[in-house]
RNA sequence: GCGGGGGUUGCCGAGCCUGGCCAAAGGCGCGGGAUUUAGGGUCCCGUCCCGUAGGGGUUCCGGGGUUCAAAUCCCCGCCCCCGCACCA
């Protein structure tokens, strides 16, 4: 067995030692600059990530072989709060976290406990990731390695510069924003900060302030609703008699009012820009039977009891619109049936009896009161039928929103979805409405174990992706970019339109502080948008040990935005202490490498990082430095299951490499899927591929012993070389478009299969022509495989006596003299003939047959076929053919043949010498079929001769 | 709700943009054969239905339509997946 690991490590070391992948400026070569989204290192990379990083490496290697000066750098993203969170959880000995890090990521215990400090987590996984990438054989220029955050000051200064410039351009704005919030710990909660409720939505309730006058005091009952337009159909109010309500003084800005809301709502609203002072607590029943005024219509409506009202949802105050809200209708029905309850609150049952529903919306398929109809349809019995009522509500809301037409002035005739906005706007303007954010589900629990609330944050910094001029520039850049796969362009376009203000800083986690407001730390999606430019100067920064404080904004301005100027370099040098030659070097590198040719990442980054990447480039850089292409890839699953570190269902990239070898892993991942489709890792297939690669290795090792002599080749040799040409062409075209799977099919499988056929076809031959052919194939095959399996390709390249590294060898191009379509057709012809003979034997049950007689098409049939192929039409072909007197003699036969050919649309015809092909392959056909083959005998056996057609000889088996 | 993408033969998955050599690549699975003491591996053959001569029939979510011709184009419907932000 081949020791892949030893081979791989040998070449990895050589590449590093000889700095094969650390390109210098070389004006003689075209440059090619490709980057991939750097990994966020909260753990080991798994085989799903492997795809994202292997693709750019394969492309980088391909382009390098094509003669480009290729830059493929790498860095590490450590910005944000997850790493800090992990450190905290390790400190608190959280069992789940310890399981993941000790058992899934296999961190040794003595190191694990140092993870209480996030810096140690970062250090550990950066080292591990680098080792993994080296072991994967990635052709990365490690001289440009860096990591984000203030832990790496030069980069941090670069980010500060970016934000200063964005702010100058007015693209950073301050504002308010709501966040999920832990009210006990006092911190915003991201998705990863929740143990429950990650996908609970935040709803935007409109509060309509109904007026209660009591002893000449005005109180507001803010009814919470998602459908403000139904305020025109309110017949009564609902409070839960059992729930606790409060009277509170509510200060909002300079406005002060007295509200009646549930106790819970008072608490929640205190996080939403409301200063709340509770004056009195009481049960809801206290207010039942009182009358309040609808602030929009001026109607006086009565407060009635309803148990469906949840004090822990929104304000606990609900307006009743029975015509259009199934819950309201059901609750009204309930109290009509149960007059006792009304008497208890001293309400005259006739009042309830006389409530008449107000129809607001015209809805096709329903009468006046859709809520009533829908409730009946679903068989609602009382307000306790919560499930049915929720379904009915959903149906009605959806139908009315999309198809309903409002029928009350001043909105008569307008669609409901418009009226909804208009009513809300109007109420806000009149000061009779307010707003409240609420979760769509109560169970939102932070990782600290507390129930989350929604808090409105002030002084939040945003990047204003909603800026219309900025959007226009982003669209312009996108239009000029290549997007792979092209089908994803629509999504980019939609996201550019959709993006609006994006909060760009927070108060927790690792990162770069905002230079003008250092309490805030720039968050991770905002500090990773233009770092591809930093890579171009990173080599010099690392090499000369340039300090963060030396990198003042003017230095970046000069390097990235301005024209070459010795004067400026001198000035900056004096100011910063960076030698002016070094400033020059950085500037030259940036100008040489930029613009970025390709940005790679997994498809999940399209709605955020990749689009931000476009936006920030067009904001900061000159047009000639705007990026040129984005290629996205899909994800990976493991044996059909989604990879999940918390369930332990992951295969670490490094473990896969150690188990199978880097080349096997690389080729396997590249062969499974391409572009944005996903792949599934199956262990059994990996094992199989390993064997095939071993076979590849053995074959080339064998062919390396052969000599490429200039001898006369046989047709089948020429066939193989023609097929090799096809493989070169196919693989090259596929790689140009990042189609790795197609490329592997050409570069590996098609050659493997052709070789199998060739070996079968040349069994027994061991002449110089065969050896020369195989030797030529080997030479090309190794190079075609080099981007995918670089290590064994290097090893085999040496065996073949290739010069230098195969990584730097010339990518093969099709050899003009090898193209030979005719021979390929002849070979297909032989294959088809063998298949036909075999089929005849089975279908006609001729297992004991001895001989097959083959009749090729007569010359006149070929001539007719050629004419038909040219004319593609019965009449035209017929008149052409009939010019020939010989043909006229066969008038009827010819006419029939033309008819048949036209009907079959047999217009793609290329002449081959059938008989020659048959005679050359005779022995082979006999071996394959086990029959004696007689070619074009005089005797018309079985009367088959007339069936012969061009490319389809007549066959008689006996 | 808004937005993006899909539904192909047992499965995965090409092909569909640029209609026709498409019963539909390739792989997996399954069946048969060769090699082998056996297993594994490797190599051949088969794998929608029918067929004693290489043929015929019915397919590409459902329903319409365009066309000499549709998996491929158009319309309607059904179903599925993904993203929606301060989070990497």
TrEMBL record:
Pfam families linked: Anticodon_1, tRNA-synt_1
Recorded catalytic activity of this chain's protein: tRNA(Leu) + L-leucine + ATP = L-leucyl-tRNA(Leu) + AMP + diphosphate
Record domain Aminoacyl-tRNA synthetase class Ia: where: 10-681
EC number in record: 6.1.1.4
Compartments it resides in: Cytoplasm
Signal sequence residues: none
Gene Ontology BP terms: leucyl-tRNA aminoacylation
Keyword Transmembrane attributed: no
Short sequence motif 'KMSKS' region: positions: 642-646
Gene Ontology MF terms in the entry: aminoacyl-tRNA deacylase activity; ATP binding; leucine-tRNA ligase activity
Record domain Methionyl/Valyl/Leucyl/Isoleucyl-tRNA synthetase anticodon-binding: where: 717-848
HAMAP family per the UniProt record, alphabetical: Leu_tRNA_synth_A
Family: Belongs to the class-I aminoacyl-tRNA synthetase family.
Protein name: Leucine--tRNA ligase
